[in-house]
Amino acid sequence: MLKITDLKKSYGKGEPVLKGLNLTTDERRLTAIIGSSGAGKSTLLRCINRLVPANSGKIELDGVNILDLHGQQLQHTRRQIGMIFQAYNLVDRLTVMENVLAGRLGYVGMLRGILRRFPQEDVDRAYALLQRVGLSQYVNKRCDTLSGGERQRVGCARALMQNPRILLADEPTASLDPKTSERIMELIAGITDELDLPVLINLHNVPQATTYADRILGLRHGVMIFDGNPGDLTEDWLEKIYAGYEDDLKKQMRVAPQEQDDE
Amino acid sequence: MSESPDHYIWRRPHFIETPYIRYGLLALALIYLVFALSTVRINPQRVMAGIPRAISMFSGAFPPDFQARGSLIISGFIESIQMTLIATAAGVLLSIPIGFMAAKNVVIKPVYVVGRLIVVVMRSLHPVVLAVIFVSAVGFGAFAGILTLVLYTIGFVGKLLAEAIEEIKYGQVEGIRSTGAGYLPVLSYAVFPQILPRLIGLSIYQLDINLRASAIVGIVGAGGIGGTLNTAFGRYDYATASAILLVMIGIILVTEGISGRLRRFTK
Questions:
Q1: Total domain count for chain A?
Q2: Tens of pLDDT, residues A207-234
Q3: Cis bond leading into B63, ω under 30°?
Q4: Considering the domain boundaries, does residue A145 fall inside one?
Q5: Do A103 and A170 fall within a single domain?
Q6: In this structure, is residue B233 part of a structural domain?
Q7: From CA B145, how far away is CA B134, in angstroms rounded?
Q8: Residues A93 and A60 grouped into a single domain
Q9: Which of B179, B184, B198 to mutate against chain A (most A CBs within 10 Å)?
Q10: Same domain for A91 and A76?
């Protein structure tokens, strides 16, 4: 379903962040991407939904090369790709419901969106999703009054509201305290299981990756150096993935997820 | 490990490092100040001659006379307030699209250049100059004043709105854009809510400014209380003039109190 071939990306004239990356996922499972800061994890996800433009290569979703799309075609592809952000990226001053319904903006007409007149089935689905993430009591609360964990739940609901073919999550738990972080991971894993969605998730936390993911990719300096099952991720591999980032490495070697603190 | 001295000497670094340039600029500023003062030529005789005139003016202004021209004062203020309200509403509405056009981060370059140009032109002309132009274009009266204040509002609100748009948090835009939303929905969901408190605050503030400006533009014939004030001065009717000034101060104090309180609600 998602096929990335020889993807290259550099910012300005600097060292390339992605150096000819290849990746295929068509299985409906959770794929975690690990790697130290600056390895290119975020850039990879952002290239997929074109929040940043790639330099060369191909990203095909159901056979359509996303890098060739413009205007409305790009919007129609974007709406099939849900994204959850590290900083939640909700609109602070809008209500929870508006943020969730924003997930339908790629589908409804412009005027309906701007006037907040969404079709009844969208509103019903938004209520159902808010119930699923446990926030149905906050429908009309402004997002800037919510806690970090609650905001990320809204972020999940917004992404799912798109009825996505695939879900991208860019370090969705990195801004949260360890307990909340676990809950959000459980939520994402649970929902994707229920909805039968493939998920690409960047994680800074290896124990979380091995706990929740079905497949793990190790990214180092813009090159995929590990691709395998969580069980195959030995300490040797971790050392290769995180070599030169000793602090990151030490953190990852402590395996018990409960003892991880992220900040 | 180098051994540490008994005490350290620390001074705040100078704003301009090179001493020649630092003291040179200071000397230039002093020379200019002396030169400027020498060209002012304060004439003590004219100052002395002015004192009795000032005394007669102030004694004429006291007590203020609200009655003699009462109906003129009231109609003048009503016209000023009407001008202010209409011009602020129209100006703010026009400022919104122009503010978006003049914000680098939400429009393409050619649109940005046009938007900036509109704002710069409107800001470069003082309301009195604008009023003179409009009075000669559309004739004496409130209409010229309203046009003046509309342009004045666009210059001020449009510019500050554009700056507010350029300072928005971009993550929120990314969040909405990633859902596949089109251009206008992104503006409506991710940009507009972020600048709304600023827009409300600016509009209320501009209402204050326009009320004051409406008095000034009246002096050159663009309607409102300014005209009445000018006539009062022209007829040496200082009692009426001081009455107008007192009412003006009162109204501005009241609106300032209200607008300050309203702006505190927009967080």
A1: 2
A2: 889 899 999 999 988 889 899 888 888 8
A3: yes
A4: yes
A5: no
A6: yes
A7: 8
A8: no
A9: B179
A10: no
pLDDT, averaged in runs of 10, over chain B (267 residues): 76 88 94 90 84 85 82 89 94 96 95 95 91 91 92 95 95 94 94 93 89 88 87 88 90 86 76
DSSP string, B208-237: HHHHHHHHHHHHTTSSSHHHHHHHHHHTT-
Residues of chain A with pLDDT under 50: 255-263
User: Residue B144 belongs to a domain with what CATH number?
Assistant: 1.10.3720.10
Is residue A101 a part of any domain in this protein? yes
- Residue at a domain's end among A163, A188, A216: A163
Q: In this structure, are A260 and A171 located in the same domain?
A: yes
Domain that holds residue B121: 69-265
Is A185 within a domain?
Answer: no
Interface predicted TM-score (ipTM) of this complex, two decimals: 0.88
Integer CA distances (angstroms), B251 to B38, B64, B215, in order: 41, 16, 12
Instruction: Tell me if A126 is assigned to some domain.
Output: yes
Nearest to A114 among B178, B188, B196 (CB): B188
Residues A173 and A75 grouped into a single domain? yes
Locate A243 and state its tokens: 């070599």
User: Residues of B numbered 159-218 whose beta carbons fall under 8 angstroms of chain A's beta carbons: which are they?
Assistant: 169, 171-172, 174-182, 184-185, 188-190, 193-194, 196-197
Closest chain A CA to residue B188: A114
> What predicted TM-score, i.e. pTM, was given to this entire model?
0.81
Q: What is the dihedral of CA B50, B55, B60, B61, to 10 degrees?
A: 100
Q: Same domain, yes or no, for A172 and A53?
A: yes
Q: Are residues A137 and A176 in the same domain?
A: no
Residue of B nearest to A156 (CA): B175
Q: How far apart are CA A122 and CA A120, in angstroms?
A: 5
Q: In what order do the strands lie in the sheet with A166-170?
A: A81-84, A166-170, A199-202, A30-34, A215-220, A223-228
Shortest distance, CA B265 to any CA of chain A (angstroms): 14
Burial class of A76 by CB neighbour count within 10 A (0 to 12, 13 to 18, 19+) = middle
B174–A113 CB contact, under 8 Å:
no
The CATH number of residue A236's host domain is 3.40.50.300
Q: How many domains does chain B have?
A: 1
Residue ranges making up the domain that contains A247: 1-80+166-180+197-263
Among candidates B175, B182, B194 on the partner chain, residue whose Cβ is nearest the Cβ of A110:
B182
SS (H, E, C) B85-107: HHHHHHHHHHHHHHHHHCCCCCC
CA-based max dimension of chain B: 89
d(CA A229, CA A240): 16
In this complex, do A113 and B196 lie within 8 Å of one another by their Cβ atoms? no
